[in-house]
Amino acid sequence: MNELRSKTVAQLVTENIDTAHVFKKHGIDFCCGGNIAVSEACENANVDYSTLEKELLNVNPTSSRASNYNSWELDFLTDHIINVHHTYVEENIPLLLQYSAKVTTVHAHHAPELNKIHDLVTEVAGELSGHMKKEELILFPFIKKLVQANREEAAPPKPHFGTADNPIKMMEAEHETAGELLRKISVLSNNYTPPEFACNTYKAFFSKLEEFEQDLHQHVHLENNILFPKTLELEKKLNEQTE
Predict the structure, then answer these.
(1) Which residues of the chain register pLDDT less than 50?
(2) What does the DSSP 8-state code read for residue 73?
(3) What sign for the dihedral angle of Cα 156, 66, 30, 47?
């Protein structure tokens, strides 16, 4: 149990992705803000540690190979992020914008917070669109070259951006920006709870927003807590081998 207390939130989610649901339930950030001890995270979120500990210990160890992201090769992980999470964003942003525009037009006169939510949805759509392109065109291809160099025992690539740390820091900052936009949406929407007068489109909009946030949390977790640290470690190893 002391071991659990001292581990970081990110470590626990990396070991078993199902623990993410426990942290989400208690409002504890496991992606951008996951690099703090579980005990500290409880203090910050005003959560009783003993309650959280019991719930975490009751999560069954993941036995599915498909969920063991920490064991995947980095090039395979980048493809997974693109095929699953980038595709999800690309497919659902148009739907969110459509829902948002319709619900705001019809209901903003008695739910004025919808105007701000619409602005935030539009902003996060723009943020993620540019962000994903940078990953797909710049960072992820470089990661694949690192993996190939490691397999072939070749010299590491020399990118125009210096080291992987530079684009990674940019990606992490953009993750934080997108996460903050969705946190604001969550607050404005009363944690995605539609009002009593909400029509079906209104309800579908809030439900899709909540789903979108959950997908982004897992997306960011895979990058911030697994892909990026392992990329930096691999790059360092290859550079040391060629010195």
Answers:
(1) 1, 63-66
(2) -
(3) negative
